[in-house]
Design brief:
- The chain has 319 residues and is an all-alpha fold.
- Helices cover 70% and strands 0% of the residues.
- It contains 16 helices and no strands.
- It starts with a helix and ends with a helix.
């Protein structure tokens, strides 16, 4: 079991020999290290509920977190499936594994196209089952939030929506990761907080930046497959400026929330991870046309995204 766990967590591309049991293969196909990106927004929503004085119901909180994890897993698996159908991942020779180019489970023969499709559908059905229970416990408003999340996750790469191919992928990620804390908050409070949408906006923007920078190594393959997101539509040098603009907007929103009293000034510590975004932006601006040199910038982007959300959650819990 230890060898299987090590195979899941290391950065080598998957092979059949490295996953001797179906459980290990299916689990790794969800790309577990990256699912933490959905854990942070849920923690942010729960922390905001506590910050406003709402008690946390343990069972519903755990189910909300588990549903978010399984939804993210389903989106990862189905994205691999649809990218295999349109040929994007097969064409991708400039990928930086494990960050870009998909999980490679289909391309390397670990799981078949049909197995990935069925697995993704099964994960979606599990999310729906949990969602039905949470809707029963908290109210129908959660139905619309959940439906929006499912449509954004599925439609990101699946036809006929194919949001990322139409230049709407960044907006889909921004909206999806904005809905996660709002749903977590609603389950605990029975209310929708528009303030929380603003509070969670910097975190969602930093998550969007992860998608954005990951598209540079995938750019040539995406163009060949007809995935015309904005990094594909623009020259690399021009597209690179989108990253610092998104990071700047995240910082500006955070400062605005503190200046207006929505967040305490202690939340300024949550701006510290943005320094990593600045460093990543400098790397991207320099090497936008040489995507194989972007791995350090991608790592910094991940740390900035996680660091901001976790620090802001701690600030809310301390308030």
């Amino acid at each position: 079991m230890m060898k299987e766990f090590e195979a899941i967590m290391d950065n080598a591309e998957p092979t059949v020999a490295r996953f001797p049991t179906p459980f290990a293969a299916y689990f790794a196909a969800t790309r577990p290290p990256f699912i933490v990106a959905s854990v942070v927004p849920i923690l942010l929503g729960l922390s905001f509920a506590l910050y406003l004085g709402y008690p946390i119901a343990g069972v519903s909180a755990v189910l909300t977190l588990l549903a978010a994890i399984l939804l993210h897993a389903a989106v990862n698996v189905l994205n691999d499936y649809y990218d295999a159908l349109n040929g994007t991942d097969e064409l991708n020779t400039e990928r930086i594994y494990p960050f870009t180019g998909g999980s490679r489970f289909i391309q390397n023969g670990v799981l078949s196209l049909q197995q990935m499709r069925n697995f993704g559908i099964g994960l979606i059905l599990a999310v729906v089952a949990m969602g039905i229970y949470l809707i029963y416990q908290s109210g129908m408003e959660l139905f619309w939030l959940g439906l929006g999340g499912l449509l954004l996750g599925w439609g990101y790469s699946a036809p006929p929506l194919r949001l990322n191919s139409r230049g709407l992928g960044e907006l889909a990620v921004l909206a999806g990761f904005g809905l996660l804390p709002l749903g977590a908050f609603f389950v605990q409070s029975g209310e929708l907080s528009w303030w929380l949408m603003l509070v969670s906006l910097p975190s969602a923007l930093l998550t969007t930046n992860l998608l954005y920078i990951n598209q540079f190594p995938d750019r040539k393959a995406d163009i060949a497959a007809g995935k015309l997101h904005w990094v594909a539509r623009l020259t690399p040098a021009t597209a690179a400026w989108g990253y610092p603009l998104i990071a700047l907007l995240a910082g500006a929103v955070l400062v605005l929330l503190m200046a207006t009293g929505v967040l305490p000034w202690l939340a300024l510590v949550a701006a510290l991870p943005l320094l990593l975004s600045i460093r990543a932006a400098r790397i991207l601006l320099r090497y936008a046309g040489q995507p194989r040199k972007l791995a350090p910038a991608i790592r910094m982007t991940i740390l900035a995204m996680l660091g901001h959300g976790l620090l802001l959650s701690v600030v809310l819990l301390s308030g």
